[in-house]
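Most newcomers find our protein records easier to grasp once they have seen one. To make this concrete, we reproduce a full record directly below:

===
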Amino acid sequence: MTCWETAVMPVYSSLTRALAEALVDVLWFIDGSEDEQMDPDDAVKVLEGVAHLVSKLSSDQRNELIALLGTMAEAEADPARREFLEGFPEGFGLLDDAV
């Protein structure tokens, strides 16, 4: 058994929710990493790559992700992480073409 299998894992209502949670976890880690933890140029490449990926989502997909991020933010107990979730749509370019 690996260490992550021993932790209590939440059950997600959809694959979309599970993937959004995983994406936010990775980006939250990268955004909060010190230079000693991750090369800043590599961090920027990852963050820009995600922004590019979400820019290719359809309007319906963007709106779904924005709504999901809002739900995640409302449920978030950590104020700093809640702020990250609330700023995600604008920070990653989801609001440009969202309807």
In short: The chain has a mean pLDDT of 87. The radius of gyration is 14 Å.
